[in-house]
Amino acid sequence: MKKPVYTILDCYTDEPAGLGVPPYLGTYPRYLAGKLHPEQVNYITIDDLRLVKNYHNRKPQNEIVTNIKIYNTTNQDIPDILANTTHLVVILGIQTPGKYLSAVPGSMKEVVSLITDLHCKKILTGPGIFGTQLIGGRKAESVPDGIFDEIWNAHFNFKEIKDYALKGAYIVKTIPQKRIIEIETGRGCTFGKCSFCTEPIKNKVEFRDQEDVVEEVKLLHSYGCEFFRLGKATCSLSYKHGDVKELEKLFKPLSELNLKVLHIDNVNPVYVNEERTKLIVKYCTEGNIAAFGVESFDKNVVKENTLNCTPENAYRAIKILNEFGSQRGPSGMPYFLPGINIILGLKGETKETLQENYKWLKKIYDDGLMMRRINIRQVTIFEGTKMNEVGYKYFKKNKRLYFSFRKKIREEIDLPMLQRVIPLGTVLNDVYTETHQGNVTFARQYGTYPIIIGMKGRFPLGEKISVKVTGHMLRSITGEPIAPLQTIPMHEGKRIK
Ligand code: SF4
Q: Is residue 494's pLDDT more than 60?
């Protein structure tokens, strides 16, 4: 009998706790490669498949506008891999859609159109088995009938992951681009009540052992990975229920590996205190952000949706981070700042909700505090959540108010806040050039929510440079390279349709 050949097709994932959209590499492909070991397992991306199917397998060079649909190819012989594949394992699922600078995750519709004619067994896995949606405010796409032979719930326990994470780490060697590696530390939510959230449905609360996390990071580091985010957790500070000794047992050995980037992601503001904040500042690298899932500063919405913190609690946490995390590190960024997530369309939302959100954000600015970014999303509704019973009622009712709300926040808070956080003349180091838009090159640092820098001139992509800040846009900055860089003339590029 022919031996099975598995091919993991990474269509990228983004969920409340866990990012796997490039430049991030999520946990799913690594764990699955480890589970399927010692069978032959290939790793390819949706960009690889698009290149073969939509671009005759020829990657255009130096496009005027970088084509981010085929940016993250693995440079392998994809037709040969597909011809030999007996089992295609599709990883897919966007549940907290965002804007991505250099990647386009696959939608269910797109992926189905790309794989329908492949002659192999097709397996769907990842958060997409519960629904996926690339655009906020739209109903999630569900799994279509008749395409997939099997659905796998890639839900492994931590005993299995101890083994799989190490056995599957090798797939990073097939990825030519630098990636920031998403590392899992725990799952489930110690709070677990927010009306829109799928995490309590998916996972019960449990934590990985420190030794397992450190061993996995060590191995990935030995394979050349330099950037890490302990991001696959609903709250990095509630690791082992926020016990500071346990947190130290996790972060101290990781800091001793001298990683270029060691960041965290989500934080429940309720868990912020002086001791835990100091610990993160001490052991992680600068540019770190605690993404606070505040979701709403309207007390009524907080109550109706059983959200995790009151506006007062969020404000208190923002103050603590500012007190202990605002000094700058060698990369030019402050060590540890808060980020705020707001969701529009939640139950009970009124015109006043938007005013409350503005009022609190303005207060934070007026009080001289720093926030690295405000993320405003429209609710996406998933089955099994309490919001599923409410539907898009509030979203539809208030939709007409969102544009001006966003604009007000961007112009009156984001812009001056950015000028405060990264003032004119700041030098940012370890910045990597990433995409071209005509005569502009976009670049950023590796890390959690790095600021996007637009630079006049077409510079070679993938270069590490230092940049001086020359201006501020609403949510990005402009800069110029400190050292002169060779530029690529415009006429060498071709426009890709
Ligand atoms: S705090 Fe709320 S949004 Fe965050 S993971 Fe828990 S239930 Fe979900």
A: no
Question: Which structural domain range is residue 318 located in?
Answer: 178-421
Domain assignment present for residue 218? The answer is yes
Ligand 1: distance of its center to the CA of 201 in Å?
11
Q: pLDDT digit string (tens) for 54-63?
A: 999 998 877 8
Question: Are residues 183 and 54 located together in one domain of the fold?
Answer: no
* Alpha-helical regions (H) of 256-335: 274-283, 299-304, 311-325
351 burial (CB, 10 Å; 0-12 / 13-18 / 19+) is exposed
Q: Which of 270, 307, 308 to mutate to test the pocket of ligand 1 (most atoms within 8 A of CB)?
A: 308
Cβ 234 under 6 angstroms from ligand 1 = yes
188 lines ligand 1 (CB under 6 A): no
Residue 202 CA to ligand 1 center (angstroms) comes to 12
Backbone angles phi, psi at 272, to 5 degrees: -80, 125
Q: Please indicate, yes or no, if residue 156 is contained in any of the structural domains.
A: no
Confidence at residue 103, expressed as pLDDT on a 0 to 100 scale: 98
For residue 1, the model assigns a pLDDT of: 67
Q: Is the CB of 199 under 6 A from ligand 1?
A: yes
CA 477–ligand 1 middle distance (angstroms):
31
Q: Tell me how far CA of residue 133 lies from CA of 23, 28, 103, 168, 448, in angstroms.
A: 20, 18, 15, 28, 22
Number of domains in the chain: 3
29 and 137 in a single domain? The answer is: yes
Q: Is the CB of 302 under 6 A from ligand 1?
A: no
CATH code, 484? 2.40.50
CA of 472 to the centre of ligand 1 (A): 33
Q: Is the CB of 268 under 6 A from ligand 1?
A: yes
One domain for residues 223 and 320: yes
CB-CB contact of 453 with 424 (8 Å): no
pTM of the model as a whole: 0.94
Confidence of residue 491 (pLDDT cuts 50, 70, 90): low
